[in-house]
Amino acid sequence: MREMRGRYKRTILGWSWSLLNPLSTMVIYTLVFGIILRTQAPPGNPSGVHVFALYLICGLLPWNFFIAASSNGLGAVLGNAGLVRKVAFPREHLVLATVLAGLLTNAIELTVLSIVLAFFGNVVVVWIPMIILAATLIGIFAAGLGLILAALNVYFRDTGYLWGIVGQIWFYLTPIVYPASLIQDRAPRVVYLAFSHQPMAVAVAVFRNLMFDLRTPTLTQWGYLVFWAALSLWAGYAVFRRLEPRFAEEL
Q1: Cβ–Cβ under 8 Å, residues 94 and 139
Q2: Which of these, 79, 142, 94, 92, lies nearest to 244 by C-alpha position?
Q3: pLDDT per residue over 78-100, tens digit each?
Q4: pTM for this one?
Q5: Residue numbers of the domain that contains 230
Q6: What local confidence, expressed as pLDDT, does residue 4 receive?
Q7: Which of 7, 100, 140, 242 has the smallest number of CB atoms closer than 10 Å to its CB?
Q8: 159 Cβ neighbours under 8 A, 6+ residues apart
Q9: Does residue 243 contact residue 148 with C-beta atoms inside 8 Å?
C-alpha cells in the first residue's frame, strides 16, 4: 500500500500517468517504426486485426511491466536504507512490494487495452484467466531478477547504470517493435532459437497470442514461461539470502 500511495504522490495527474506513459511510448514507436520505417505487423491469427499500434502495445505492456518491476526492485533495499538499518523484517518484502504494485498498475493498463481492442472486434474476456496467469508469471520472473539486482546494488552502486544498458539491449533483442519472423528469415536457426526462447520473447508472444491473435498459447510457450519464472525466483532468493546478512553494514 505504501508503494501504491507513494508512486504518484503530489502529482497532478496521479494514476493517469500509468496510462499516459505506455500510450506516449506507443505513439512514438508507431510513428518511428509504423509510419517512417513502415514496419508491417502480421495480421492477428485468427482475429484478423491488422493494426500496428495494437500489435505494438500488446507487446509493449508486458515489457514495460517487467522492466519497471525489476528496476524498482533494484532500488528497493537501497531506497529504504533507514528501515533496513533499524528494523528486523524479511528484507525481500521490499522487492516483492514493488512487483505487486507494478502488477496492479499493469492490470489497469491491460484493462484499458482490452476496452480498446474490443472496439476493433477483439473481445478478450474469454482469455482473462490466462492473461492474469501470464502477467503473474512475468511478475515472478521480474521479482527474481529484482531480488538479485537489489542485493547487488547494496554492494555495487554501478548496478543501476549497468541494468539500464542491459534493459535497452534486451528491449531490441525482444520482438516488440518488429515481428519475430524478421529474425527468423535472416538469422541462422541456432540464433533464432536462442532469440525466440529468451524469457521476454516468450512472454511477449504469449500476450500477443491472447490479446492480439485471440488464440491459446502452446503448452511449450507456457512451459518456457513457467521455467524462466521458477528459475529466476530460485536464483533471486539464493543470491538475496546469501548477501542479505551484511546489508545493514553496507548501507
Answers
A1: no
A2: 92
A3: 887 777 788 777 888 889 998 99
A4: 0.87
A5: 2-250
A6: 60
A7: 242
A8: 74, 149, 152, 153
A9: no
